[in-house]
Amino acid sequence: MKEDNDRDDGVEDESQNSESEFVRTRVCLTNRHKEKLEECADEHHAGNLSMCMRSAIDDHARVLNGQHAINVDRVKQIANSLHEEVDELSSQLDDLNIQENTNEESDSEHHAPINDVHQALIEERDQARPSDLAETLDISRQSALLAAEKLVDRGVVARQPAQEPKYAIETANES
Question: What is the pLDDT of residue 111?
Answer without folding.
Answer: 47
